[in-house]
Amino acid sequence: NTYCIGGPEHAPHVISQLKLQPGEMLELDLELDPGSYTIRGPQLPYTIPVGISSESKQNTLKLNLSAAGHDQSMTPLSPGRQRLILKNEYEIPILLRLERSIRKNDVLTAADASRIELFRELFPEQVLSSQQLMDFSTFTILGVQIDGIEELFSVSGDVTALHQIESEMKYLCQLAELHGGEIAKAQEDRTLIIFRDSTQAIQLAAKLLDRSANATDALPLGLALHRGNALAKTMNGKMDYFGRAVTATGILLQRAAAHTLLLSDEYQTDNDLILALNEADLTAVENTSSYRHTRQSIEIQ
Predict the structure, then answer these.
(1) How many C-beta atoms lie closer than 10 Å to residue 178's C-beta?
(2) Which of 3, 104, 114, 147 has the smallest CB count inside 10 Å?
(3) β-strand pairing of 35-40 with 25-30
(4) Given 86, 102, 118, which residue is the final one in a domain?
(5) Start-to-end Cα distance in the chain
(6) Model's pTM, two decimal places?
(7) Angle subtended by helix axes 149-156 and 158-178, to nearest 10
(8) Which of 76, 102, 128 is the last residue of a domain?
(9) Where are the beta strands (DSSP E) in 34-93?
């Protein structure tokens, strides 16, 4: 086996590395422990997951590597000795590595770091460039909107209303950061916040709804919760997010009534999420897809 950067001690997660010429077939004789592994290479536009499980009776895996791609589902093999047969169907040489998978929770990628506001402030020259899009996998978006903003300006006047809005949004951003959220979009009267963990989004929603309905100094808020994928991009030194999920959350937020959390279709049938809502003291408003806090003293029409 051939290793780079001086030897395998510099890349302990690499099990094997090899180079296949066009049309060449090689067989690897392995002894892998139970766990998850990945086959990848700089010339491959995809990765191939390989699992070692005691439930599998298969010990041989043959892979034809081509531009047609490969089934991305996990391929299980039995523990002990395994035979991995690889054939290069490309017209160019390809370099392959068999790696031991690292738990994603233990890894912070360049894209992850670029999404952290404090990192961007401390290391502005290290964030991904504006030409680089980052694919952000499935996540939760919490939309927050101040309800009745036109009436607020009419009753309180421009200066007072603007001060109240700025104070509310500043408090919202602080709470979002404490709950692991990242501001995706921010406008005068609304904000979209992204979360990797839907539980944190629900906890923040519960606090906001409780405050919205019961705190005398709070502005009335309408909330919306959606799930989907989006693209992140650095623009003017800040992260911005794009995609159908972001747009859909904004549209959903327009229908959210004051002091309620409106669920998207994706979440209305998610039993685990509904249970989490109930555990956070959020109850369903009858005949709607909205939820409100159990301590709410204001009647929703």
Answers:
(1) 12
(2) 104
(3) unpaired
(4) 102
(5) 70
(6) 0.56
(7) 130
(8) 102
(9) 35-40, 48-52, 60-65, 75-77, 82-88
How distant, in Å, are the alpha carbons of 25, 213, 278 from that of 70?
17, 52, 42
3-state percent breakdown (helix, strand, coil) of the chain, nearest 5: 30, 35, 35
Residue 170 lies in a domain: yes
DSSP tag of 77: E
Reported as a single tens digit per residue, the pLDDT across 155-187 is: 999 999 999 999 999 999 889 988 988 888 888
Distances (CA, A) of 261 to 4, 126, 204: 53, 37, 11
273 — pLDDT class (breaks 50, 70, 90): confident
Q: Name the amino acid, one letter, at 62.
A: K
**Residues spanned by the domain of 170:** 110-293
pLDDT tens, position by position, 49-88: 888 988 888 999 999 998 876 665 666 899 989 999 999 9
